[in-house]
Amino acid sequence: MKKIIGIGGNLMFDAAGTFPGYPRAYVNHDYVAAVKAAGAVPLVLPVLSDAECVERQLSVVDGLIITGGYDVNPLLFAEEPHKLLGETLKERDDFDLLLIKTARRLGLPVLGICRGLQILNVEAGGSLYQDCSEDDKCYVRHWQGSNPAQATHTVSFLEDSWLFSIFGTKTGTNSFHHMSIKKIADRFRAVAWAADGTVEGIESVDGAFAAGVQWHPEMMHREEKMLALFKSFVSKT
Fold first, then answer.
1. Options 142, 153, 177, 216, the catalytic residue
2. What's the number of domains the chain is made of?
3. In this predicted model, what pLDDT tens digit does every residue of 4-22 receive, in sequence order?
């Protein structure tokens, strides 16, 4: 029987049209396509704030993907907003935090993608650069702006890591982020880096399977190695 992979949803607000300001539940379709291509059943989980509902959501899935989206609110790691901080959404932060806590309690494997990596780190007590420019070492272009399926910089991997078992020493990735990891939470270790030292991958060290990548492999899932990431995650469930 195929495994069911929950995909954490997002909220989007219409800027114009018939219903300006109207909230819509969604995920980018590449998440759905990547999970299906990996041989699992994708199930989109809409944003909720009710703990009982979230637990019921997660009770029917075998693994969880935390998706990209809004910036993480820096108040969650005891910092005031930087002038370069992007848009945040409390409902999304609350939902992701609840998803992560509940998934850990239920023993579900978790994969965080882009913002998903960041909120995994923050939930566990880590912190973020609110903009890559805050990191004096950062020189790689981490926001490519277009062509989402195209790799634009390299990422190197730690040998004794799950990500190394998929990608080997180095691979090319796309890049669509301006926040990045500053302090890594004790529950995780860094296992992948861009050439400028920006953390591009984390994995849990506490026995439960949780990992995060800073790039968007779902947008590149038509490439063999990127699809292998999702296949390997499904195998962990």
1. 216
2. 1
3. 999 999 999 988 778 888 8
CATH number at residue 83: 3.40.50.880
Check if 114 is active-site: yes
Active site residue 216: yes
In the chain, the DSSP E strands lie at 4-8, 10-13, 23-26, 41-45, 63-66, 110-113, 128-129, 153-157, 170-173, 180-181, 188-194, 199-204, 210-213
Annotated catalytic residue within 114, 142, 153, 221? 114
**pLDDT tens digits, 35-84:** 999 999 999 999 999 999 999 999 999 999 999 999 999 999 999 999 99
Stated as kind and residue range, the H or E segment containing 96 is helix 90-106
Q: Which of 153, 177, 218, 221 is catalytic?
A: 218
Residue 200 structural domain: 4-235
* pLDDT in the model for residue 15: 84
